[in-house]
Amino acid sequence: MHVAESHPVAPNRIRKPSIGFLLHALLINLELQDFWREGVKNSQTMEITNVTEYQAIAKEKLPKMVYDYYASGAEDQWTLAENRNAFSRILFRPRILIDVSKIDVSTSVLGFKISMPIMIAPTAMQKMAHPEGEYATARAASAAGTIMTLSSWATSSVEEVASTGPGIRFFQLYVYKDRNVVAQLVRRAERAGFKAIALTVDTPRLGRREADIKNRFTLPPFLTLKNFEGLDLGKMDKADDSGLASYVAGQIDRSLSWKDVKWLQTITSLPILVKGVLTAEDTRLALENGAAGIIVSNHGARQLDYVPATIMALEEVVKAAQGRVPVFLDGGVRRGTDVFKALALGASGIFIGRPVVFSLAAEGEAGVRKVLQMLHDEFELTMALSGCRTLKEINRNHIVTEWDAPHALPAAARL
Ligand code: FNR
């Protein structure tokens, strides 16, 4: 048998590195360390590039009780996740080769010209997020040329918010058992220059928010529900569960019904937006009872869990409204693409809730401004990339939803 001749293995000769080589390696090492250090520094002061990023910052900054109150939804929080997830099931059908060198995202709401169809939803107790609270939000909305809705349960009064300067503002109303309180408050909002009432109709009782129960949530004693200060209703007691749930049980009128929407029209000439509609049946009733507009809302998933995402309920409401009143949407809007999808399904505009309190907690007025600017820019970009130059050009054919049957494609798109 032929045995392969074995060659003697040459001993591994380790050559000494030259001084030059060592110096070079050292330099690279130093530069790498700088590069890494810079990287860590950058990640600490990292630029915010989208609205969602503010949530983690708010979580770090805020006391747990406050963060949980802002962030959480009702019970299993299924609807909370669904408000976001549903947007991701709607896809675009962009049109191309359309001159999009000029884009106009401005619009009108109830006759008021605003810079974009992106507005601020009422969120309660904003001074828990930042000392400037509702003032900061009002200034940011005004600077962005859009509408702020002030909550009944704000920690700044209607008069205080009005004193921050000019701006188009709506007032969100909770109807108290004591109708004198309601009548007074509506009159004050009118006098302070608020332009519409957003009547919240999904809260005869407070939804079961388990984090608030665990945390024994209550308004910190140094703050007041400012609109009710003089009426002895501005403080919230600590309770065995959620202090807010007890407050609502004590003060809010569970018997509220459509006749009260009529009653409201006898005490104010302001237009009434019914906030919290999710069905065609209630849309028709809202129209019959004199609503000037409808807000499709599930209260940021904080009331009844397992209602659909608002973006899923929108089209049903739009169809029932038959163009007689504008339909708006809130719930889970975090991207310009979300705004576009809502408009393609027939909304006249959208409102944002949590992004405002989270950005307020992170950076005060500058944070809210940035949120509005980012959504504006993303929305404008979405329009450009979809081939739309004005809001009127956005239509149902620019999107496809999972509930569209193949035959529902526009005639021009069928083979
Ligand atoms: C709210 N929301 C609310 N709605 C209302 O009519 N009156 C109120 O006082 C409040 N307060 C409030 C506080 C907080 C912390 C949140 C998160 C929400 C509901 C709000 O107006 C809006 O419907 C949702 O916030 C919209 O959903 P997103 O944008 O938060 O997902």
TrEMBL record:
| Chief localisation class | other
**GO cellular component assignments:** peroxisome
* Example GO biological process: hydrogen peroxide biosynthetic process
Annotated residues that bind FMN are located at 122-124, 151, 172, 200, 275, 297, 330-334, 353-354
Residues at the catalytic site? 299
| A Pfam family reported for this protein in Swiss-Prot or TrEMBL | FMN_dh
Keyword Nucleus applies: no
The signal peptide here is none
Required cofactor names: FMN
List of residues binding glyoxylate: 69, 174, 209, 299, 302
PROSITE patterns found in the cross-reference section: FMN_HYDROXY_ACID_DH_1, FMN_HYDROXY_ACID_DH_2
Which keywords does this chain's UniProt record carry? Flavoprotein, FMN, Glycolate pathway, Oxidoreductase, Peroxisome, Photorespiration
Which GO terms label this protein's molecular function in UniProt?
Answer: (S)-2-hydroxy-acid oxidase activity
Known EC number? 1.1.3.15
Q: In which pathway does it act?
A: Photosynthesis; photorespiration; glycine from 2-phosphoglycolate: step 2/3
Q: Which family does it belong to?
A: Belongs to the FMN-dependent alpha-hydroxy acid dehydrogenase family.
Q: What is this protein called?
A: (S)-2-hydroxy-acid oxidase
